[in-house]
Design brief:
Oligomer: homodimer
Number of helices of chain A: 9
Structural class of chain A: alpha/beta
Strand content of chain A: 15-25%
Largest sheet of chain A: 6 strands, parallel
Shape of chain A: globular
Radius of gyration of chain A: 18 Å
Mean pLDDT of chain A: 95
Distance between the termini of chain A: 14 Å
Helix content of chain A: 25-40%
Chain lengths: 270, 270
């Protein structure tokens, strides 16, 4: 297909979303998506540069990588761009002391951060910890601040677990934004800063890079706004209506990561 | 003050918000706001027509009225416009079978409604029942519907309990709207239909009526858009910044319901 040759010409680096592309999370950690373990291995044996770019915020980077290695993936912590470390950097730079509305699994990422007398709220995908009580506590803290600062690790609408679609942090961000009359600062996809830091670590320019993800807005739209190309996989949270999204059109739609890698190995960097 | 004489001239009917105007809810049911029991009694002895117009959706109308009577208020069920009965009417008219994301206290209002094979979600101020699990269940049902319908009893940002500010249903409406990419239908203030039904029950025209509430957007802005006048009380969820709201300006600001009634008895219907 000549069309793929044109679409993928000059690609030298690949950013891979993790959840919904490599695996579906769920009971017992989750399951790899068929063909993805081998697809990552083939990509890494090729001349293409590879980096993982995730909004995962329920687990620390270490725990996420340990889980993926158990599932068979060739991946190390240094290859992953994730929002928690990026958030810690911002907190330190701006002297912010967070109240954390997060999942216990990611709490260790904030061990070195001063959390006394909070002057901001940091929220991530807290899952079951998004209780009314915890949401209300964060709300009350924001309402008592003269200049309320709300930082969110990602703003996803939902993600897919093996048991079905699950509400993501973005829904709860919208709740606090509305209640407090404020706008959150998002660390993670689709923030341009986040994609740029991943590209920098990858060592290629935006026009030489392609994002592969299951989120039409966060992955595809976000990457394209940074000048990258982007493929949407029909796994994870993909829904058929995504191919007719009113605002975002991917550079290509593929059944899964395996098909994306087949195409890349055949056509990229030609 | 001549200015009040002008502002209140021709008022023949009064709509009273309940929470934050008559009482603050909280431990043990709540406490009356100082002077409000007597203020309601004085209003009802006057020539002015009085009706209560509430977005309360944690309690059935019967339970709410019983609580207020225990606190000393002269009030009966027939005098209250509330969103649950209005919602049941809509469900019946449109053949909708709701999945209910509500507080147990209001469940009895929906006893006569068919809830098998839900084809919509009805949400109210569920309080502690806004768990992640319950929110996710409502989300999953909406995502499985071809034409998802979300009906919300009110869309308040927050309300005040004796222990502090509390997240209201509107925050959770925003969460589901964002996650599902839909817009909720709101039954309750500030919906014009809701104010109109209260006015009809009151038996006066909009230009002859005044709303007294603590919510600058839901009470004051909503009533004014219907052609009514509106006073904001400095009790309940009132915050000083409300007096400089970028979009809504009340026809007057008063310390509490007692002051509003003093002014009305002095100047209304002249």
């Amino acid at each position: 297909m000549a069309v793929w040759g044109e679409r993928l010409a000059g690609v030298r680096g690949v950013l891979l979303d993790i959840s919904g592309v490599l695996y579906d999370s769920g009971e017992g950690g989750g399951v790899p998506i068929a063909g993805s373990v081998d697809a990552v291995a083939r990509l890494k044996r090729s001349q293409l540069k590879v980096r993982f770019c995730t909004n995962e915020s329920q687990k620390s980077r270490g725990e996420l990588v340990a889980l993926l290695r158990r599932l068979g993936f060739d991946i190390s912590e240094e290859e992953v761009t994730a929002p928690a470390p990026a958030t810690c950097q911002i907190l330190k730079e701006r002297g912010l002391r967070p109240h954390l509305l997060i999942h216990d699994g990611v709490r260790s990422e904030f061990d070195q951060i001063d959390k006394s007398s909070p002057n901001c709220v940091v929220m991530a995908d807290a899952g079951e910890s998004f209780s009314y009580q915890n949401m209300n506590k964060a709300f009350q803290i924001l309402m008592e601040l003269e200049n309320p600062v709300l930082i969110s690790l990602g703003k996803g609408r939902y993600y897919k677990e093996t048991s079905g679609l699950m509400l993501d942090v973005g829904a709860y961000v919208k709740a606090l934004e509305y209640a407090c009359g404020i706008e959150a600062e998002v660390v993670g996809k689709p923030s341009p800063e986040f994609f740029k830091s991943a590209l920098q670590a990858l060592g290629v320019e935006a026009h030489q890079a392609i994002m592969i993800g299951d989120d039409i807005v966060g992955d595809i739209g976000g990457a394209q706004r940074c000048g990258m190309r982007a493929l949407q996989v029909r796994t994870g949270k993909f829904r058929p209506s995504d191919e007719h999204h009113p605002e975002v059109k991917a550079d290509g739609y593929v059944d899964n990561l395996a098909e994306a890698v087949d195409l890349l190995l055949q056509h990229a960097d030609k």
